[in-house]
Design a protein that fits this description.
The protein is of the alpha+beta class and 185 residues long. It contains six helices and ten strands.
């Protein structure tokens, strides 16, 4: 399990479009997921301890961001051949167990992860209403264990700022997590 850190935010970079199957049986596009004031694209998976530590916080933040007009989508791009916990059927179970208030999509070809430049799970991409990148940072100070409950909510605060002003914070702390499990070519 390799820990990887996300690169610095490339402000204004457009959000790549996608058309991916969701655990709900629907095919979702970027525009289906977008909110009136922005879009949060998360690359997550089922097996990663960094993601497991914050799943409840991801759900909480997505619910609160929806009230601010920010849509959220989660994409799983790992190759499940070596990580069966990340298989589509298991994605359905996790989404149901945690009552995901957002689409949970499978990027089987891994093309969407590559288009976004995703490097780890979790990897967060926060976009403004015009789908320009404004945030590429961490959820909070959690690592493989959840940080204390009163920790600063970096992602939520940044996306709240994006919803209110259209701009993300100048200072962003990178997310850290398990590397994307790329299919061997």
């Amino acid at each position: 399990m390799v820990s990887t850190e996300t690169p610095v935010c490339d402000f204004g970079l457009p959000a790549p479009d996608f058309s991916l199957p969701g655990v709900d049986g629907k095919v979702w596009t970027r525009n289906d997921c977008k909110g009136e004031r922005g879009l949060l694209v998360m690359f997550i998976c089922n097996h990663c301890p960094y993601v497991k530590a914050v799943r409840d916080r991801i759900v909480r933040d997505a619910r609160e961001l929806a009230k601010l007009g920010v849509g959220t989508v989660a994409i799983m791009s790992n190759d499940p051949a070596d990580y069966p916990e990340d298989a589509f059927e298991n994605m359905k179970q996790v989404a149901e167990e945690y009552d995901f208030p957002f689409p949970y999509l499978l990027d089987e070809s891994q093309e969407i992860a590559r288009a976004y430049g995703a490097v780890c799970t979790p990897d967060f991409f926060g976009y403004d209403a015009g789908l320009g990148l404004q945030y590429r940072g961490r959820l909070d100070a959690s690592r493989k264990e959840a940080a204390p409950a009163d920790v600063r909510r970096d992602l939520f605060e940044a996306m709240k700022q994006v919803a209110e002003t259209g701009s993300g914070p100048a200072d962003q702390i990178p997310s850290i997590g398990c590397s994307i499990k790329w299919r061997e070519t």
